[in-house]
Amino acid sequence: MLSLFSIGLAFFVIAVSPGPANISNATVAMSRGRTISLIYGAGLSTGLVCWGMVAASGLGVILQSSIYLLMALKLFGGLYLLWLAFLTGRSAIHPDNKSLQVASNSKSHLGWFIKGVILNVSNPKTVIAWLAALSVGLGANDSTTSLMLGVIVCILVGFATNALYSIFFSFKGVMAWYQRASRWINSIVSGLFAVAGIGLIRSAFNR
Predict the structure, then answer these.
(1) Is residue 99 scored above 50 in pLDDT?
(2) Are 59 and 134 in contact (CB under 8 A)?
(3) Nearest to 162 by CA among 15, 35, 53
(4) How far apart are CA 94 and CA 142, in angstroms?
(5) What per-residue string of b and e applies to 144-155 under the rule 16 or more CB within 10 Å gives b?
(6) d(CA 199, CA 207)
(7) Which end of the chain is more exposed for a tag (fewer CB within 10 A), N or C?
(8) What pLDDT, in 10s, does the model give residues 37-86?
(9) Domain parsing of the chain, residue ranges
(10) How far is Cα 98 from Cα 169, in angstroms, rounded to an integer?
């Protein structure tokens, strides 16, 4: 049975973790305001949808072919999550306070939306995140329809996460607090990645 909650939670942990897209969205929120950031975040989320369709297509083929391919995918996804845990844990030990600057002369809302789309579409590593998240709640007997429900959940989580970044970082003084708390935030996120990765690797051998 496809666990939509597990998929949604896994995707949220991946989506909310600090990365180029989230840092850029936070920067836009602080420098350009909430409205522009929400539009930019919607573009980022739309870019995620494109890679989500790619990931779902590949998983659909796997579901219809071999249980061993599914097991291999789960192992790959688990290792990817453990790698994210390592990177995030390293950031907690050696924090890097550099922020990503987003330069743009665009004054139109459409221009900011397109910038968000391009940023995520131009990052093919995003499809790996999709595969890892969907694999968390994926079973050998799940149908393509169930898989698409999982994709829809991830899409909703993606839009909600980017909106939260836009709203949260548009408040004054938030970035200063975030930089002070980044060590603890990264430590918690690293732990969540590790738990999810180990759980996914274990599920690969549970048939």
Answers:
(1) no
(2) yes
(3) 15
(4) 42
(5) eebbeebbebbb
(6) 14
(7) N
(8) 999 999 999 988 888 888 877 766 665 566 676 677 678 777 877 887 88
(9) 4-204
(10) 16
